[in-house]
Design brief:
199 residues; alpha/beta; Metallo-beta-lactamase, Chain A; 4-stranded antiparallel beta sheet; 11 strands; 26% strand
């Protein structure tokens, strides 16, 4: 399949995967995990919200609709601004909506640069502020957030968000219970529209 074929496929998938507010469930499901960590599920996506001493960290805004709902839910929890957005991987249905948090630092694993320029829908952030190879730590004041890369999973920049002090690990699109999807099971097409070698 050609790049234009992948782009057409991605556009068709986006119409299905990027939900409108009417298509999503009525109310976000906010679950308190600790005194400063929450899970927010809405628009068919789950995300982590970490309230720090001076700001808030969120994962995968996904799209503009979900990011607006996420922002509204965060404002119910705290007056602090969103200072960090962590992208768990490079797929277009996770990387949108970062513009809702214009002052936030966007963080992703290094391999995102190999795929992000191929974004056929231009959903991704204009720039990634911080990238890392295998490990990156963000000290939120209330807890430390460790970002870990163990290899390709659902995408080449798959990141596990680990909060050791809280006993919480978060990752998106894990298809096998209890572990990252082995790279050998991945297709060789990346859903941003480009091709990747997953072996």
């Amino acid at each position: 399949m050609t790049i234009s074929g992948y782009m057409a496929r991605a556009v068709a998938l986006a119409a299905f995967l990027v939900p409108s507010p009417a298509a999503a469930q009525d109310a976000p499901q906010v679950t308190k995990l600790t005194n400063h960590v929450y899970s927010v599920f809405w628009g068919f996506y789950n995300g982590l919200v970490v309230i720090g001493r001076d700001g808030v960290l969120v994962t995968d805004p996904a799209n503009d609709n979900r990011a607006a709902v996420l922002k509204a839910e965060i404002e119910k929890l705290t007056d602090l601004p969103v200072t960090h957005v962590v992208l768990t991987h490079e797929h277009f249905d996770h990387i949108g909506g970062t513009g809702t948090f214009p002052d936030a630092v966007i963080v992703a694993q290094d391999n995102i640069h190999a795929v992000l320029p191929l974004d056929p829908l231009d959903l991704g952030p204009d720039k990634i502020d911080v990238t890392f190879d295998e490990r990156h730590v963000i000290d939120m004041g209330t807890t430390k957030v460790e970002l870990r890369f163990f290899g390709a999973a659902d995408g080449v920049a798959a990141t596990v968000v680990y909060l050791p002090q809280d006993g919480i690990a978060f990752a998106a699109d894990i298809y096998e219970k209890g572990r990252l999807t082995p790279a050998s099971f991945l297709e060789d097409t990346n859903m941003l529209g480009g091709t990747t070698n997953s072996q």
